[in-house]
Structure formats: C-alpha cells, structure tokens
Amino acid sequence: MASIRQFVRRFLERPGSIDLAPFERIVRAAGAEEDRLRKAAELPSPSMDDLAGFCAVAREAADRALGLRPYDVQLVGALVMLSGNVAEMATGEGKTLSGAVAAAGYALRGRRVHVVSVNDYLARRDAEWMGPLYEALGVSVGWIGEASTPEERRAAYDRDVTYGSVSEIGFDVLRDRLRVDAADLLLPEPDVVLVDEADSVLVDEARVPLVLAGAADAGGAVPETAALVRRLVKGYHYEIDDQARNVHLTSKGIDTVEEALGVELYHDTARLTEVNLALHAHALLTRDVDYIVRDGRVHLVNPSRGRVALLQRWPDGLQAAVEAKEALAPSETGEILDSITVQGLITRYPGRCGMTGTAVAVGDELREFYDLKVAVVPPNRPPVRADEPDRLFEFAADRDRALVDEIAEAHATGRPILVGTLDVAESERLALNLAGRGLECAVLNAKNDAEEASIIARAGERGAITVSTQMAGRGTDIRLGEGVGALGGLYVIGSGRHASSRLDDQLRGRAGRQGDPGGSVFLVSGEDDLITHYVADEYSSGVPSARLVAHAQRVAEGVNAQIHRNTWRYTRLLERQRDLVLERRDRVLRGRTAGEALAAAAPERWTGLTGALPPETGEEILHGAARQIVLFHLDRCWAEHLAYLAELREGIHLRVLGRASPIDEFHKDAVAAYRRLLAEVESRSVATFESAGITEDGLDLDGEGLKRPTATWTYLVQENPFGSEWERLTNRLATKIRRR
Ligand code: ADP
Ligand code: MG
Q: Which residues form the domain of 144?
C-alpha cells in the first residue's frame, strides 16, 4: 500500500512540479505597470491584495534603492516563496534579492519574518545589503550575530524582518526557554521563516541538535583506554562495517581488552561504553577529515560543508574520547538543560519557505519533514556551462596525478580554476602537490567567513587557482574577471564525487552563472570512499563505471535519509513532550497558575503566609515566589528527564534484545517518565513552598539551596552517534553470545 502511494506521489506530484504559470502571469502583469511606476516621483505603498502591483513596486524600489532591477525570474522566485514553497534557483541568480522581496511581501501582509542564513557573515551582509530596499517598502529589518548583545538581539527581533544564522536563532530560542521573568524574553512567537540554502540547512543539518548546558565540570577523559585501543588491529581485534559508521570488537578483541583491563566487559556496561567510545574515536574519526586539532582543542569539521564547525562538539562521551585519543586536556562538559534540533527549530514556524540552488534532489525529504514543495525557477539567461563526463580511474594515486596535470594544463591558458575536494586534509595535500609544480593556490577551509568570501569573490580572476572543500552553502558568487569569458570561463574540477549528487551540483553551479561560459569535470577513483563504502565488494574492483558511481550515490543518499527518519522517530516524542512542558512553563511565566496551584495544594501555608505579609503587596509577593519555585523545579526536572531519556535510548537495545521493537519500548518508558515528571514537579514545588522562607523581600531561591546554573553555554552536537552506538552494543553482544 505504502509503496503504491509513494509510487503515485513520485509520478503525479514529482517534487518540482509546482506550476509556475500563475506566478509568471502575475509577473507579466507587473511588467505592464513598469513605465507608469518609473515616472512616479514617489512610489505608492503596495497592497498585498494585488500581487502584480506589489511586484511592480518592489522592482522599482529595488532599482532605485539598490541599483538592481529584479529580473522576471527573481520575481517569480519571490512569489514561489510568498506562497510557502521552496524556490530552486541556481547560484548567481540573485536569490538574496528574491528572498528580500518575498520577506518584504510577508511583512507587508503583517507577518514577522526570520530569514535564516548559513552563517553570521551572510546574515549581516544580506540584511545590510537589502536594507535600503526594505526601507523603501516601509519594512523594518535587523540582524543578529554571535557577538550581538541581548539589547541588540531584542531590537533585531522587534523588526519586521530579522536575519540570523540557524544556530544564533536556535540558541536564543533555548535561552528564552529558561527565562524566569517574562520581561526578559527576546523572541516573539515564531511566524514565518525563510531559509536560504534550504537543502543545506533543512536536510544536511536537520539532525544537528543545538544544546544549552549548565553547571560545568571537567569531562572524564580516559587516556588509558585510548592507549589500549590504539594497539588494536583492524580486521583482527575489531571490524568496521562497510559504510564506516560502526565499529565493533571481534572475539579476539574482546579477549585482549578484557585481559588488559582485568574486567569482564559483559558485566561492566560503563567500561564497555568507554571502550566502544574510544574505539569509535580511534577507528572511525580521522584527524584532518572529521576534525582538526588547533590550539590544543578538537575542532569538528562539518561534513556537509567541509569547514571547521566552531561551537560544535560530539556528545560528551565521544568528545572526551577524541580528546583522549589526541592526548588533549578534557574540555568542559555539563548537564544538558535543553536542546533543539534544526528540524525542531524550523518546524516551530507555522509559515515556512526557502530557496537554494539544489532543492529538487531533496524534494521528498522537504515534503516529508517540513511539508514544503519545490518549484524550479528557470535561469535568467540560458546556461551554457559544459559539463564533461566523469574521468574514471582505478587507483586514487593515478587520479591525484591526473588532477594536478589537469590543473597545470588549464592554468597555462590563464583560465581560473576552482577545485572542489572532499575534505580538509585533501585540500592541503593538493596545495602541497601544486606547490611542488610551482603552482600557487588559495585554500579555503573556513576559519573566517568574511575572509573566505573575499577569496571566493576573486576566484574568477585570470590565473586564479582556488581549492575548497565542499561549496554548498558558501553563499558568495564568483564573477569572471576581464577577458576570462573568452578563455572559457571558470573551470570547476571535482577531485571526487560527493556522497550526494546534490553536493556535486552545488560545486558545478559555481561555474556558468547568469549565462557565463564555464566548464566542470569530476575525477573519480575506485578507491574513493563513495565506492568502497556503498558498493558491494564484488563490484568495486577495477575502474568504476559511470553507472556504478551513480548507484553508489543513490545508496548513500538512501542511507542518509533513513538515518534522518530513524533519528526523527526517536526525537519526535521528545519534541512533543517538550512542547507540552513549554506550554505549561509559558502559562506559569506569564500568569498566576503557579500561585493558584500552590494555594490549592497547600491552602494552610498559603493563608498563613498571606497573613504574615503586608496586605497591599502580599498577594503579588506570593505569586512571584510561587512562580520562581515552580519554574525552578520544572526546569530542573526537565533536565533530569532529558538525561533519563538519553540513557534510556542508549540502553534500550540491550533491554529488548530479540524481543519487542525498540522504538515501541522506548515510547512506553518515555511516556511513563513524562507522567512522573509532572508529578515530581508538583510534589517538589509544594515541598519547597511549605519550607521556604518567604518574606516582604520575596523568596531567596539561592538561599534555599535551589541554585540555577550560574553559567550556561551553548554548542551544537554533530552527528548523534547513538543510533550506531546501539548497533555496536548489540553487535558486540551478539559476538559475545555466539562465543559462549
Ligand atoms: P545567489 O544567492 O542566487 O547565488 P546572490 O544573491 O549572491 O546570488 O547574487 C549574485 C550576484 O548577482 C550579486 O553580485 C548581485 O549583485 C547580482 N544580482 C542579483 N540580482 C541582480 C539583478 N537583478 N541585476 C543585476 N545583478 C543582480
Ligand atoms: Mg545566496
């Protein structure tokens, strides 16, 4: 049944099937008003009941305010977004302007818009660049960045349109969830979100949790375990699954570890987890690919953007294991107070839309997880980029040589070259190889977004060689320098195919913008991870065929979508519980529910206190104290609940080994735990209310020993490995059981 429905959906409502004709009609009608508006000394304020009129005014306003006259296709893109869809528009088509017209349209309808950019640099650039247009349309605009103060943030969120990166907005949401005074809340109710580089944010980063933590202590790194696993031999002591997602000890490995540690792993789950984490860090995470070490710290590399992801870390145990592997001092860890995934963050907004160069490829996911449809907006000028077929090699070493030769040859003609590599280490290797041939190149691996943008902006100059890890979401377009068009325009060379053809397209799309000439080619070897991880061994030897490469990409994409789906099944329940808790919290924060509940639960205490307090202010003081008490326990219990669920999730596969479905089992326990949570908040609140000193000065929570965390900090957790953790545990147990 499900598969038939899927089949019908695929063919009848193919993603990208949104009909552009109605939007094109509106834009044509807008064209008819062009002359009249051009002569107008002052622009009329547009009415959103007349979309053609709005487009005409927006076009004229952009021309006057920015010196950019939106092309028809840019207005079509804006209308696609204004109707709540994702516009697929190629790199360099001018999505910033399209998005601003759409955001202004929403604002003129009385909606409040958050424009989500991929980083702080772009949020500010776009808000400032589009500022005059918004002003001309009578719409206020602001932006936030990592360095913004609370006052600046409040001011920015007060505007009709606010630009910000997904993490900055997300962290503000998390911090708002712990306010104890309604006047301190920064964010308004979520209304409309417009997501730039929508595939990158909504699909590649959908699972990334943003975390707010408090009450620090040093992480428990385990250097001995790290040293132990370093001695283990792959294939003998441990094995890695085909897709390099899981590693597990063989029986030989178990013996060796048990002997070295003098424990029975089977009976010592803490040790077992520790060994598994160390092994994961040792065997699956590679320095300079998954992370780099700089200034004595581990910095994660974002796998979809190939750049250093500041503020990101793995879940605590794994972070500590990697730090131990690299013999670094453990970084601080703390109790998680709350967290939200990018997906959870975006789906809070009742209105959603977005834009990107590559959306159709993730059309199914956008529909499934965000209820978004995709419309393909044609380019302003027909593309003439020449995409050559892949060049295929059996061995990586041959490909690497051919890559340098190809660069040298094209460079000799003066043609600018952009090389896309798959990871940071490869970029650096290539730069060395090129230097060996006397060729200089600029290497991008993202330390500074602004600096990087200026390097990219120069990548189209005659003779430029730019080496970059994945280009998705980089947000700066490459203009051709003098005379470069005659040389064939920008030449994009990929040093291997990505795990998704969408990322290949993002790279290719850097050449041939706005009808420029340009070219692209990918050099693929049979030793590339894509082939070795996603193609069965019997097919993966020799020179790979184009079909095999395409097949490997489809498998990789399927695996990623499945992981997304699995994680979502576990987090959905948690998100729902969180919504319920937050709803209660909000009522407590803004109203008198806490006081009413405590008055009902402890009427004698309430009356007693009322008598002891001054009659004019007594009631207010009591309600204020009740609010503080309930918020404290609610937040406390929620953090405990989160910790419990994390543990539950980690252990569930052990408990249900060979029995009920783990997800059902998890749900049953999680629901029961939620009920306990509510009861616990109530009983703890009543107990505090009964015993705490409440005077004319109110309640001194700290004095009662009820301290809120003094410091909080935020970070992103990358690639939640719990899913594979369970598999590792079960695999490992299966091995153990087989052996007995
Ligand atoms: P995208 O985000 O789609 O890759 P950008 O918004 O970064 O593209 O814009 C790419 C370039 O195109 C910018 O330099 C911008 O100034 C230019 N541009 C955008 N719209 C127009 C227009 N209507 N006319 C001329 N130039 C434009
Ligand atoms: Mg852009």
A: 2-207+343-376
